[in-house]
Write a structure and sequence with these properties.
Layout lengths: L4 E12 L3 H12 L4 E4 L13 E2 L1 H9 L3 H7 L1 E3 L1 E7 L5 E8 L11 E3 L2 H14 L4 E2 L2 E8 L3 H5 L6 E7 L9 E11 L6 H5 L4 E15 L2 E2 L7 E6 L2 E7 L5 E7 L1 H4 L14 H12 L4 E2 L4 E14 L3 E2 L3 E3 L5 E2 L7 H20 L9 H26 L13 H10 L1 H4 L33 E4 L5 E3 L10 E8 L4 H14 L5 H4 L9 E7 L22 E3 L12 H5 L7 E5 L5 E5 L4 H9 L6
Helix pairs in contact: 1-4, 1-9, 2-3
């Protein structure tokens, strides 16, 4: 019997589930100073296994929170991929090697592999430094939303009531607690209680593909064991993911008879174990040998399901993220990446609304942007899974998958799998009317990395490191060649216009615009020809905020940025980067009213 309610409380954001989506969200909100709680039903964090691959774009995102360096230090890097197919003489042979990451603008041209528990620990430590810890073991037992329109539209109201059950309650206390929240984020996995409680359906289908996963330290003569490998053999497909230390993960294709209970038609885990999985893999690896002397770190089996939730939010008050709203096969290495990028997209929007900086309508863009991405991901996954799980082409099987087909898909999908090619369609926060003024900085895509030098001291900086995830919009003023007197006058006029009371900078600046907007100036002039003090004060609020598109003192890095971005080096452009690192709008220097209109469409003036 449940003991009586022992506590009632209010919170701005309640996050249910402390997997990758949940901890990304909690950390971002904690860093932004939001009143947030995060609960999880597991008594302890993940020790081994689960997801393990971090894609290049996700590394950039972690770096924007100051967490990238630890990830890179602790994880393994995958730079090369190898492909094996049936050999005419029996067994398998290598048919090619290729870069693992094919996206040309990737700042980190590799994947990092590290077990999920270690990745979550990076976030948990950061959260703790900001005063937030995961409360566990706790499960939600009911969720109710106010039906009052007035309450739902008031960003300061607490219209969501959640009852929590503490599975290990303090002695002499009841085990139930009532929490009233402004917003709830359901990051509680593929079997999401939040999604089911709200009656949100998952659309899609279960596939026929059954895979086993085993983590182990291998003893093998296989030459590409430290590369990402796709192995197609007559005995099924296999994938190798090298991991931290000497660990390796094997994905092994299984047949129904291996694991399906004939009476129920369901996967029966008791019919399979890590030793049996390795035996299946050993057949696919012939003539190479693979075994382990150190036992197994983790294993599982699964059927690939490819589904997307019908909606990602209810009344912009309860949101679902991560596996709760999309499921797909792990082999393209997308699950954890998609999950963390969901809440990276959501957290700054919640923060802006909670601070009163933005209208509630901003929250509609979460579903608009991330559901389209999830659908694209499922479409990609269907093609990739079919190629991966399909039989290889041989003399006898002309309908099979050729090495060329697989390699082409691997490279074509590279921009997508890396996360680099994610493209958000036009909306209130993504306006491409002046795209031609920065033709290679695609509006709706992430800010392309590039090294510039600081005007004050010629120190080279990666531009992404000057665009942290700190909830501010970044106003990048590409001022052109300010060594030219006529251009310097244009820049001065822009500074006066942007600094006037009617401009977005002051209208939405909350009395201290530097808290909302961070201005960086980037000149195409050479370091010998300009001083950072030449720029108007608005465009050099600190000596570190003026950059040059020039090489460093040793001509090792830098230069070519205007060309990389497709910006006229004489005329310049304004580029607005959203708090999540995506380009929101670009405009010529003489069209500031269009930038004002962009911010007016979702921000709230004082």
């Amino acid at each position: 019997m449940s003991l009586p309610v022992y506590k009632e409380s209010e919170v701005d954001v309640l996050i249910i589930g402390a997997g990758p989506a949940g901890v990304m969200c909690a950390n971002a909100l904690a860093m932004a100073g939001v009143n947030v709680r995060i609960i999880d039903q597991r008594p302890a964090k993940v020790a081994a296994g689960q997801a393990d691959g971090i894609q290049p774009r996700t590394i950039e995102v972690l770096q924007s929170y100051g967490l990238g360096e630890r990830l890179i230090r602790e994880g393994n890097q995958m730079h090369m991929a190898a492909f094996y197919n049936p050999s005419p003489s029996g067994g398998i042979e290598r048919t090619g090697r290729a870069p693992d990451v094919t996206a040309p603008t990737a700042r980190y041209p590799f994947e990092v592999t590290l077990h999920q528990g270690a990745i979550e620990a990076i976030f948990l430590d950061s959260m703790r430094a900001h005063g937030v810890v995961v409360e566990r073991p706790i499960v939600p037992t009911s969720i109710e939303m106010s039906t009052s329109e007035e309450e739902l539209k008031d960003p300061n109201a607490h219209p969501v009531k959640v009852i929590l059950k503490h599975l290990d309650p303090p002695q002499q206390h009841g085990d139930s607690e009532i929490v009233r929240a402004k917003f709830v984020v359901g990051a509680d996995g593929a079997h999401s209680w939040v999604r089911k409680s709200l009656g949100i359906s998952m659309d899609g289908e279960q596939t026929d593909y059954i895979w086993g996963v085993v983590d182990m330290v291998p003893d093998t003569d296989f030459p590409d064991i430290r590369c990402k490998c796709a192995v197609h053999s007559h005995n099924g497909s296999c994938m190798i993911i090298p991991r931290e230390g000497d660990l390796v993960r094997l994905y092994i294709q299984l047949s129904d008879r291996d694991v399906v209970d004939p009476t129920t038609g369901r996967v029966d885990k008791s019919k399979m174990g890590p030793e049996k999985l390795l035996q299946v893999a050993q057949k696919s690896f012939e003539p190479f040998e693979i075994k382990t002397s150190g036992g197994f770190d983790w294993w599982t089996i699964y059927i690939i399901g490819q589904r997307v939730a019908a909606k990602f939010s209810v009344n912009e008050r309860v949101f679902i993220a991560g596996d709760a709203c999309h499921t797909h096969s792990p082999k393209a290495g997308q699950g954890m990446n998609a999950s963390m990028n969901d809440t990276h997209n959501l957290a700054w929007k919640l923060t802006h609304v909670l601070r009163g900086w933005a209208d509630m309508s901003l929250l509609k863009t979460y579903e608009f942007e991330r559901r389209k991405y999830a659908q694209d991901l499922i479409d990609f996954d269907k093609k990739f899974s079919k190629l991966f799980s399909g039989k290889p082409r041989t003399e006898e099987n002309q309908d099979g998958v050729t090495h060329e087909e697989f390699l082409e898909a691997f490279q074509t999908f590279g921009a997508f799998t890396s996360g680099i090619g994610v493209h958000y369609l036009p909306s209130a926060i993504t306006n491409n009317q002046h795209q031609s003024h920065a033709s290679k900085l695609i509006v709706g895509e992430r800010m392309v990395p590039h090294v510039f030098i600081r005007a004050a001291d010629a120190r080279p900086y990666e531009i992404q490191d000057l665009l942290p995830s700190d909830t501010r919009f970044k106003i990048l003023v590409f001022v052109g060649n300010v060594a030219d007197a006529a251009q310097a006058e244009r820049v001065k006029a822009l500074a006066e216009e942007m600094g006037s009371p009617g401009s977005f900078y002051h209208r939405f600046g909350r009395g201290d615009p530097a808290k909302v907007f961070d201005i960086l100036s980037i000149s195409s002039a050479k370091k010998q020809d300009v001083n950072y003090t030449d720029l108007p004060r608005l465009f050099r609020q600190h000596w570190s905020k003026v950059l040059l598109d020039d090489v460093d003192m040793y001509a090792r890095v830098g230069g070519g940025g205007y060309e990389t971005y497709g910006i006229d080096p004489q005329q310049g452009a304004i580029v607005i980067v959203r708090p999540d690192g995506y380009v929101g709008i670009v405009a010529p220097l003489d069209r500031l009213p269009d930038v004002d209109a962009y911010f007016s469409s979702f921000m709230v003036s004082q």
